[in-house]
Amino acid sequence: MRELNVAEITKAVKTLYINANYHLGEDVKRCIHQCGARERDELASSVFETIEHNIAVAEEGVFPICQDTGMACVFLEIGQDVHLVGGNLKDAVNEGVRQGCKEGYLRRTIVEDPFRRKNTEDSTPADINIDIVSGEQVKVIVAPKGFGSENMSQIRMLTPGAGVKGAEEAILDICRQAGGNPCPPMVVGVGIGGNFNKAALMAKKALLRPIGTHHEDAFYAEMEERLLEQINDLNIGPQGFGGKTTALAVHILAAPTHIAGLPVAVNINCHVSRHGEILL
Amino acid sequence: MKHILTEPYTKEKIAAFRTGDTVLITGTIYAARDAAHKRLEEMIENGQMLPLDLQNAILYYAGPTPARPGYPIGSAGPTTSGRMDPYTPLLLEQGVLATIGKGPRNKEVIEAIKKQEAVYLAAIGGAAAVIAQCVETAEVVAFEELGTEAIRKLTVRELPVVVAIDRSGKSIYEK
């Protein structure tokens, strides 16, 4: 049994929350660059130029990539042979968010109640998701999630008869409805199967996969490819101004489901598709 | 077509703006988003004196990150405009000349833009660091307790925007 002080988790969350808001992953940057190069429309090209310039400015460490520095979505994969000491785990995560918000000059973006809307002043609490895995390490993933794109996300409880065709139509329809709102070019996370809550969580987790990688099951890899092409044919384009690139990538996660169900959840992310991870 | 917009802002100066054109704005704009819009609406409905002059004003839907020492503002990109749709016809009626945000507007807003000969401009969503570099000064002028959602008077230099809905009602989002 390995002991790990939760102070290490606080430190990891803080570092990841700040870094993700100033440095976009190489996979996202590469994809943005490639997609920008194939735009022929002057306005669409200029949007990509601005997006790439913005990424470079943010890397200087003064201004976060986006003013919506996001709800801190934290995923912990905790090895079952780890004994966490030194305090409460969730408190430790929230302390990391609190410190990251302050030291990283991130926006105070969370209100404590959906109706009374008083700001918590430190972007806590985080959205904490915990998985128990084998081993004696802890993986900490932080994905700050903006709400312009979150608001465009949807879940549809399809039934088995809908099949692949029905599921793809639903996903396409959700992207069409999102239109220019979620800061396209977007990354589309899809969760299929499970139940109501599992589908939504898978859709969010699908966003964590590096852009440029494919689903390991060829059936879903082909579905991702088909959907990406169909979404880009919508001609929503960067910022909704029209163009070839509406989505940078489509990522699917699938899971066993009930004999009566075919849940399909779509979690949309903007082009500022941020996340980082540390293994402790 | 490329335009330059400087103060004083007037209906005449924006009359030639057509959907798809680009505009560089230099001058004063007011950052205001969800919570500030709700307050402004309440104040107008109650006949209260407003904390800013809306006549020919430009509203920018934005809630910035905190400013680092030595900088006027943090990152300050546009937020989704659709959430401000319920308030926009009233504010255009009160004299607002232009709104800046990102994403499409509803029918009521488009009708109000036509009626008031206003314009809706799109800034690049997610380009918050680049936009922050256009901001020379920032000052909270109302609702300080709202934090990032307070109304801020910004002085901008050559803020780049795209005409998204012009006075004829033509929208860049409708294809």
CATH architecture of chain B: Alpha-Beta Barrel
Strand content of chain B: 25-35%
Largest sheet of chain B: 5 strands, mixed, barrel
The parts of chain B where pLDDT drops under 50 for at least 5 residues are none
Overall 3D shape of chain B: globular
Number of domains of chain A: 2
What pattern of helices and strands is seen along the backbone of chain A?
EHHHEEHEEHEHEHHEEE
Q: In percent, how helical is the residue content of chain A?
A: 25-40%
Distance between the termini of chain A: 14 Å
Total DSSP E strands of chain A: 10
Q: Can you give the mean pLDDT of chain B? A: 96
Gist of the model:
The complex is a heterodimer of chains A (280) and B (175). Chain A contains eight helices and ten strands.
Provide a descriptive summary of the structure in words.
The complex is a heterodimer of chains A (280) and B (175). Chain A is built from 8 helices and 10 strands. By secondary structure, chain A is α/β, with parallel strands linked by helices. In chain A, the strands form 3 sheets. Chain A has a 4-stranded mixed beta sheet. Chain A is globular and about 55 Å long. By secondary structure, chain B is an alpha/beta fold. Helix content of chain B is 21%, strand content 28%. In chain B, strand 2, helix 2 and strand 3 form a beta-alpha-beta unit. Chain A binds chain B through residues 43, 46-47, 50-51, 53-54, 57-58, 62-69, 105-109, 117, 119, 121, 148, 151, 179-183, 235, 239-242, 270-272, and chain B through 20, 22, 35, 62-68, 71, 74-77, 79-80, 82, 102-104, 122, 124-130, 132-133, 146-148, 160, 162, 172-173, 175.
Blueprint of the fold:
The complex is a heterodimer of chains A (280) and B (175).
Chain A: E1 2-5, H1 6-22, H2 26-38, H3 42-59, E2 71-79, E3 82-85, H4 89-103, E4 127-133, E5 138-145, H5 147-150, E6 154-158, H6 163-178, E7 186-194, H7 196-206, H8 218-232, E8 247-257, E9 262-269, E10 276-279
Parallel strand pairs in A: 1-3, 2-4, 7-8
Antiparallel strand pairs in A: 2-5, 5-10, 6-9, 7-9
Chain B: E1 2-6, H1 11-14, E2 22-31, H2 34-45, E3 58-60, H3 88-93, E4 98-101, H4 107-116, E5 119-122, H5 128-132, E6 135-142, E7 151-165
Parallel strand pairs in B: 1-2, 2-3, 3-4, 4-5
Antiparallel strand pairs in B: 2-7, 5-7, 6-7
